[in-house]
Structure formats: structure tokens, C-alpha cells
Amino acid sequence: MKHIVKILSLLVAISAFWIGLLQATIIPRSHTWLLPIYFVVSFGCYGLLMVGVGLMQFPTCPQEAVLLQKDITEAKEFFKHKGVDVGSD
């Protein structure tokens, strides 16, 4: 829910800024139609940056890796007893 509120507040702020620029004529009228495109591209770059940062800081869980390896071994033995070829050990 927090992310939705952040995104909506950001969209409202961007819309208010854009409308303010349209009313104040600080930027020539011929360039103001590009502002939403710039905002969308900037938002996309920010999203990609956040995904990249999240991937770089992805936590490793050695305990979970050990448990996963035990589960895999257990599943291989289970299927081996059932007569299913599970490949190499």
C-alpha cells in the first residue's frame, strides 16, 4: 500500500508541475508536449536502477542452500526407489 501512495503522490506532483509549466509559459509551448515523455523515460530509468540495485544487494542464504540440497537429494532417492531415472547424481 505504501508503494501505491508513493507512486500516486509522484504522479500528482508531476502533473501539477507540468500544468504549472503550461500556465507560466516558462518553457516554450512547442516543448511542453515532450515533458510527459521525459517524465516517463525518467521513471523507467529509475525503475531499472532500483531493479539493478535490488539485484546487487540480493541476500544469499547459505542455510537455505543447504536445506535445498538436502531436499534435492531426498527427492532423487525417492524417485530412484519409484524407478524413475533422474539423471546423474
From TrEMBL:
<keyword id="KW-0812">Transmembrane</keyword>
<comment type="subunit">
    <text>Component of the dolichol-phosphate mannose (DPM) synthase complex.</text>
</comment>
<comment type="pathway">
    <text>Protein modification; protein glycosylation.</text>
</comment>
<dbReference type="Pfam" id="PF08285">
    <property type="entry name" value="DPM3"/>
</dbReference>
<feature type="transmembrane region" description="Helical">
    <location>
        <begin position="34"/>
        <end position="55"/>
    </location>
</feature>
<keyword id="KW-0256">Endoplasmic reticulum</keyword>
<keyword id="KW-1133">Transmembrane helix</keyword>
<keyword id="KW-0472">Membrane</keyword>
<protein>
    <recommendedName>
        <fullName>Dolichol-phosphate mannosyltransferase subunit 3</fullName>
    </recommendedName>
</protein>
<dbReference type="InterPro" id="IPR013174">
    <property type="entry name" value="DPM3"/>
</dbReference>
<comment type="function">
    <text>Stabilizer subunit of the dolichol-phosphate mannose (DPM) synthase complex; tethers catalytic subunit to the ER.</text>
</comment>
<comment type="similarity">
    <text>Belongs to the DPM3 family.</text>
</comment>
